[in-house]
Amino acid sequence: MPEPSFLDLFFIFLKTGAFTFGGGYAMIPLLQAQIVPTYLEGPEMSNLIALAQMTPGAVGLNTATYVGYSEYSFIGAICCTLALILPCFTVATIVSFFKKAFQDNKYVKNALFGIRAMVVGMILTAVLSFADGSVLTSSVKNLWKKGAELPSFCWQGVVIFVVIAIIELKWKLNTILSITIAGLLGLALFSL
Amino acid sequence: MLPAMNREFVEKRKWLTNDDMLDTVAIMQSLPGIIAVNMSSLIGSKIAGVPGAIAGTLGVIFPPFVTILLIAYCLTNFFNTPAMINVFKGVRAGVCALILLSAIQLGKKILKGPFEIIMAVIGFLSLLVFNFNVILMIILGGLAGLVYKALKTQKASESQQQKPTE
């Protein structure tokens, strides 16, 4: 697995910060598409993102800090985080001076209309990448790769998936709590 | 985060009016990137110009940044133990469920017509099957939205012009 150059990593986060619309989970497929499988394996990247969700703060920010730290230590963490926020910070500051032009701008609205719809589909691919190695034994992408092992279901992952889904639908627990429960279940079930 | 900012900036310190806050919330959802950073840049800029925006943004990212560095520093040694590997398998399964539910909720809000559904399918396939450049896809999505809405308003004004002769 080639190591990303510092500049590569910087631009990955810069682009992500510039083209994520819809906040929150929308950033996840963008990051995964750029980093997997070139620099990190699917499950590895998913672990980092999951860790980023468990810690307070925006998942995108946290992921930038983690990935930056894991590749280039402290300086990597700072630069990747700054790369991520530079575009939105710049645009937001500029827009604050031209609010009238931006508010109710129909071109902005229409462009976002298209992007938001596309992002819903992209977030679904993120769902599948988290399933790799947890709910499924390997990546869904193996289905159309010649000679690769076909994914099958992992009962432990399926159980945890269903349990967390039910908990979320019925009680809407704090995300960090839900993920902690999932982790403990994982420790218990996958060790069997 | 919003009620906290409201309390602090509008009620306690009176640096912003209620209308200012409402404007800010409306705009920041249309901006790229992280909502928290957009909010702090917009509000910081309103209160104290560019230095305010910088101060606000650095303030917002500082606590999670420090927390994560600490956690990353401490946890790196434990990541590869068999126990942690299983913990993370469970975590990924859980996150899988959480994101799916969130995507379904988002879908209900956004996918209201055939155009939206087609865009979602394109987004899905482009990443999963075809590995297209994701940034390019987002740009195309924006363009598609512009073209589609432009065509729709054109059709609507054409049929309005035809009505008087019917």
Give the CA-based shape of chain A.
globular
Q: How big is the Rg of chain B?
A: 23 Å
Q: Tally the structural domains of chain B.
A: 2
Computed CA radius of gyration of chain A, to the nearest angstrom: 18 Å
Please give a structural write-up:
The complex is a heterodimer of chains A (192) and B (166). With 192 residues, chain A is an all-alpha fold. Helices cover 72% and strands 0% of the residues of chain A. Chain A contains eight helices and no strands. Chain B has 166 residues and is mostly helical. Chain B folds into two domains: 1-78; 111-166, no CATH class. The radius of gyration of chain B is 23 Å and the shape is flat. The mean pLDDT of chain B is 87. Chains A and B meet through helix 1, helix 2, helix 3, helix 4 and helix 6 of A and helix 2, helix 3, helix 4, helix 5 and helix 6 of B.
Give a quick summary of the entry:
The complex is a heterodimer of chains A (192) and B (166). Chain A is mainly alpha-helical.
Write the layout of secondary structure elements.
The complex is a heterodimer of chains A (192) and B (166).
Chain A (H helix, E strand, L loop, with lengths): L5 H14 L7 H9 L6 H13 L4 H39 L1 H4 L3 H26 L23 H17 L3 H16 L2
Helix pairs in contact in A: 1-2, 1-4, 2-6, 3-4, 7-8
Chain B lengths: L1 H11 L5 H11 L6 H41 L6 H29 L3 H15 L5 H29 L4
Helix pairs in contact in B: 2-3, 5-6
Keywords:
heterodimer; A: 192 residues; mainly alpha; 0% strand; globular; B: mainly alpha; 2 domains; 6 helices
